[in-house]
Write a structure and sequence with these properties.
Blueprint (H helix, E strand, L loop, with lengths): L1 H6 L7 E3 L7 E2 L7 E8 L11 H17 L4 E11 L5 H16 L4 E9 L4 E9 L16 E5 L4 H10 L6 H8 L7 H8 L3 E5 L3 H12 L2 E4 L8 H10 L3 H7 L5 E6 L10 E7 L3 E4 L14
Parallel strand pairs: 4-5, 9-12
Antiparallel strand pairs: 1-2, 3-6, 4-6, 7-10, 7-11, 8-10, 9-11
Helix pairs in contact: 2-3, 4-5, 4-8, 4-9
Enzyme class: transferase
GO molecular function: thiamine-phosphate kinase activity
Organism: Jatrophihabitans cynanchi
């Protein structure tokens, strides 16, 4: 199976030595390497009756690649630990590897190695590496009073798709696909760093929850304006059909891997970034001055 997987992988310009040896060698011209790890467990992070193997490969890569972009870095490589029962069909593995490879191709990165083991449950442990290209990393702790809060990418779509699937439906396809295969705005991470972003994160657990990490690390309050937070028409339609307020998905739904950042007031932001609030004195995150009752996903809640 290892030979089958490695034969299906492609390299990248930063891959100096790919799969097949004891370890890979990846170029790090900056002299610093940004690294992040994510895990996906079957029936916790994905379901095979809801998503194809290719979808799961895309999503597994996207989760970790978005973390690299959220530091203002450019992804260079993935290392993938893969555990599965011996009864798993090899063509399912082929689809998974294709998804990983294709998502890496979106950012010019490559799967450079990993590990395979037998287990009762399909589990993926994905480590992403990235290059800062001479820039300082954009951390959670740099937001300053007077900054603006902005987001890039979709919010609430994956949560809406999860709600649809959970009710036993498979449409609307646009919303369901957003859950199966997120589309992080990778290029906006390095761009935000170049524009002078003071803090940044990707939205994996929910907008309020992840902005809360910036607020805590920076010792400030992030005040969001409800009128500036868009609820797309398609999500509004789905919310009406399911009797759910779609704003809940937008504010607390994760798995879209949008980017949320703070910028000095007056920064000329491109159209991909939408200003939704400001950084003020205080603590936590508020929407129109009110604390939102549910912040987002917590694994052990």
């Amino acid at each position: 199976m290892i030979r089958r997987i490695t034969a299906a992988l492609a390299g990248a310009d930063t891959t100096l030595l790919g799969p097949g040896d004891d370890a890979a060698v990846v170029a790090a011209a900056d002299g610093r390497v940004v690294a992040s790890t994510d895990m996906l467990v079957e029936n916790r992070h994905f379901r095979r009756d809801w998503s194809t193997a290719n979808d799961i490969g895309h999503k597994a890569a996207a989760r970790s690649l978005a973390d690299i972009a959220a530091m203002g870095a450019v992804p260079t490589a993935l290392l993938v630990g893969f555990a599965a029962p011996g009864t798993l069909a090899l063509d399912w593995v082929d689809g998974l590897v294709a998804g990983l490879r294709e998502e890496c191709g979106e950012v010019g990165a490559a799967v450079v190695g990993g590990d395979v083991t037998a287990a009762d449950t399909i589990t993926l442990a994905v480590t992403a590496l990235g290059d800062l290209q001479g820039r300082d990393p954009v951390t959670l702790g740099g937001a300053r009073v007077g900054d603006v809060v902005a987001v890039a990418g979709r919010l609430g779509w994956s949560a809406g798709g999860l709600a649809v699937l959970g009710r036993g439906f498979r449409s609307p396809v646009q919303v369901v696909t957003a859950h199966r295969r997120p589309e992080p705005p990778y290029a906006e991470g390095p761009r935000a760093a170049q524009l002078g972003a003071t803090a940044m994160t990707d939205v994996s657990d929910g907008l309020i929850a992840d902005l809360g990490h910036i607020a805590e690390a920076s010792g400030v309050r992030l005040e969001l304006r409800g009128e500036a937070i868009e609820v797309p028409a398609k999500l509004a339609e789905v919310g009406a059909a399911l009797n759910v307020d779609p704003l809940v998905w937008v504010l607390t739904g994760g798995d879209d891997y949008a980017l949320a950042a703070t910028f000095p007031r007056g920064t000329d932001l491109p159209e991909q970034w939408r200003v939704i609030g400001a950084v003020i004195d205080g603590e936590g995150v508020r929407v129109d001055g009110r604390r939102w009752p549910v912040g987002g996903h917590e694994h052990y809640r």
